[in-house]
Design goal:
It is built from 14 helices and 17 strands. It is α/β, with parallel strands linked by helices. It folds into two domains: about 140 residues, Alpha-Beta Complex (Aspartate Aminotransferase, domain 1), CATH 3.90.1150.10; about 260 residues, Aspartate Aminotransferase, domain 2 (3-Layer(aba) Sandwich). A seven-stranded mixed sheet has the order 4-10-9-8-7-5-6, sandwiched between helices. Strands 13-14-17-16 form a four-stranded antiparallel sheet, covered by helices on one side. It has a two-stranded antiparallel ribbon with strand order 1-2. Helix 5 links the parallel strand 5 and strand 6. Helix 11 packs parallel to helix 14 and helix 12 packs across helix 14. The radius of gyration is 22 Å and the shape is globular. The structure holds pyridoxal-5'-phosphate. Pyridoxal-5'-phosphate (PLP) binds next to helix 4. The site of pyridoxal-5'-phosphate has 14 residues, from helix 4.
């Protein structure tokens, strides 16, 4: 079935050609409710290019075996593919040492790893600083660690415009602070948070810095060395790769000093009935059989994004987001939550008189996929004074025609619900 959105004439001058890119994503050819699929939920998970599907298929057809334990040909091939994926993903975020890149199930598990393992050294009275705009994945693990240690959680507030209130930094970050954990790009507001002032605040008091890059990795060129942070967590499935895999990058000295997160095969050196010693990084934190095919698929996604060029990806995200903000700004009664410039492609909004779930349901009848709810950020919605919001989010394959379809759909929502 031809993709009706694949009109090569429109979107001229964009940094990359999303119409051409759409041909790489088989799912974008399908229809939903007899309409062309308009997928505006990429902040939840992205669609997968053929290169990723083929890499995983090829792995299972040709090289499937368990890693690190075998001497036979398939085991060696699987191990080479798995470790090759680690090198690709590490290079993608500017990490010079692949051993500092630990595969996890995703961003959530990466943050839980740090909160449980690094957090085991927390003492009563220590402070963990987060922000008011965190995804629950970068809040609840810290709550668990804080409850164990008798530590305290503080939140850096946000302004009414959806930016971090940096004037409040001195109030929140004092010498009791051990960690500042914050999202680089908000999955609700789209806000891109400034790293340098937060790293500087942390260094002044000797605290560590963890960056949640779940939304940043798909849309920005990342360089952990330039960012100057201590830990960075991200997920494959938000960047064109499969679900079930993500990574924690951390400084070697910190990772070396941290106790294992989970015990089992792969992560040990020597085991007796009474005790064990640990494998070197990264295996120390990779207990059990890892997600091998998923790593291979993620490596293919990284190749795909690198082929597009992350600068072009970021420019496209900015251009299509700016167009969406403009079109949504024309809808009567619509409020956008978050900044209007220098932001990522997750756009949350409220429409007067319309519940987010009704909006999403009506849009779905037109083949348009948006998200409704609290987007795993209940404290942020409490700060905004709303229980839920609607969210449209874009990625490399999003074209202006889809934004137009959204705008028309929202006008229809207004007609239906407005009586
Ligand atoms: C900002 C942010 N952090 C963390 C997560 C959790 O990612 P995952 O579910 O892949 O672990 C998400 C996912 O929506 C997110 O948007």
């Amino acid at each position: 079935m031809a993709d009706p959105m694949a009109d090569p004439k429109s979107d001229r001058g964009a940094s990359l050609d999303p119409h051409r890119i759409r041909a790489d994503f088989p799912i974008l050819q399908r229809q939903v409710r007899r309409r062309p699929l308009v997928y505006l939920d990429s902040a939840a998970t992205t669609q997968k290019p053929l290169a990723v599907l083929e890499a995983m298929d090829h792995y299972y057809r040709q090289s499937n075996a368990n890693v690190h334990r075998g001497v036979h040909t398939l085991a060696e091939e699987a191990t080479a593919l798995y470790e090759g994926a680690r090198r690709k993903v590490a290079a993608f975020i500017g990490a010079t040492d692949p051993a500092e890149l630990i595969f996890t199930r995703g961003t959530t598990e990466a943050i839980n790893l740090v909160a449980a393992s690094w957090g085991a050294a927390l003492k009563p009275g220590d402070v963990i600083a987060v922000t008011e705009m965190e995804h629950h994945a970068n809040l609840v693990p810290w709550q668990l660690a804080a409850a164990k240690a008798g530590a305290e959680i503080r939140a850096i507030p946000i302004t009414d415009g959806g930016l971090l209130d940096l004037d409040a930094l001195d109030r929140v970050i004092d010498e009791r602070c051990r960690m500042i954990a914050f999202t680089l790009v908000s999955n609700v507001l789209g806000t891109r948070n400034p790293v340098a002032p937060l790293v500087a605040a942390a260094r002044r008091v000797g605290a560590r810095v963890l960056v949640d890059a779940a939304q940043a990795a798909p849309q920005l060129a990342l360089d952990v060395t330039a960012l100057g942070v201590d830990f960075l967590a991200f997920s494959s499935h938000k960047m064109g790769g499969p679900t079930g895999i993500g990574a924690l990058w951390g400084r070697r000295a910190l990772l070396d000093a941290m106790p294992p997160y989970q015990g089992g095969g792969e992560m040990i050196q020597r085991v007796t009935i009474q005790s064990s010693t640990w494998a070197e990084l990264p295996q120390k934190f990779e207990a059990g059989t890892p997600a091998i095919a998923e790593a291979v698929g993620w490596g293919a996604a990284v190749d795909y994004l690198t082929g597009l060029g992350m600068d072009a990806v970021a420019r496209h995200e900015e251009e299509v987001t700016a167009y969406a903000l403009q079109r949504l700004g024309e809808i009567p009664g619509l409020t956008i939550h978050g900044p209007l410039v220098n932001r990522g492609g997750a756009i949350s909004f409220s429409l007067a008189g319309a519940h987010p779930h009704d909006i999403a349901t009506i849009l779905d009848t037109r083949g348009i996929a948006v998200r409704a709810g609290h987007h795993c950020a209940q404290p942020l919605h409490a700060r905004l004074g709303i229980p839920a919001s609607s969210r449209a989010s874009v990625w490399v394959y999003t074209v202006r025609e889809e934004i137009d379809a959204l705008a028309e759909g929202l006008l229809a929502v207004g007609r239906v619900l407005g009586g």
